[in-house]
Amino acid sequence: xxxxxxxxxxxxxxxxxxxPTTELRYSSPFQLLVAVILSxxxxxxxxxxxxxxxxxxxxxxxxxxxxxxDGLREHIKSIGLYNAKAGNLIKTSALLVExxxxxxxxxxxxxxALPGIGRKTANVVLNSAFSEPAIAVDTHIFRVANRTxxxxxxxxxxxxxxxxxxxxxxxxxxAHHWLILHGRYTCTARKPHCGECLIADLCxxxxxxxRPRRSRTA
Length: 218
Prior knowledge:
Blueprint: H1 3-16, H2 29-38, H3 44-57, H4 61-76, H5 82-100, H6 108-112, H7 119-128, H8 139-148, H9 156-166, H10 172-185
């Protein structure tokens, strides 16, 4: 996909959704961090149901520590891997209080030093909480980038690096949300909705029904 086509992709995505945002509900960087950690192998809908109750009693690192690991487990037990997530959240809350005055740091190195936080989670927090032009490559973005030809790569990190080069600067801050939503609702893993796709005529996927076919020669 060439630079002009990539520009057209993001112009259309922006026109359709000028102000994209995460579907996770939160009111502070800490709450976003908690929600993203809980969202591993869980839907945003399921996480929002849990955090609505959780944040009412433990919406800050200090309150999370007061709740304790047993209380936290009780609140998040409907979420997959809840034991491991509870342990990481308690450890992370303690480190935020001890090292960062109870605030979530806005630096990648400091974020990735917290338990249970890898590059993808750090990118989500940097982008959504601190407006950094970071792109967190989840399964949706990985699929869209490879299927469309926007930024193909064999690993999430390779796709991320290529996207940061390929996405026009004016669209880089919101690209994360546009691509996730596109993969979640249109460019789905099974039976993608090509007939409803805003960028179907720009997509390089060989199975795309809107992709021009070369005529066969005799």
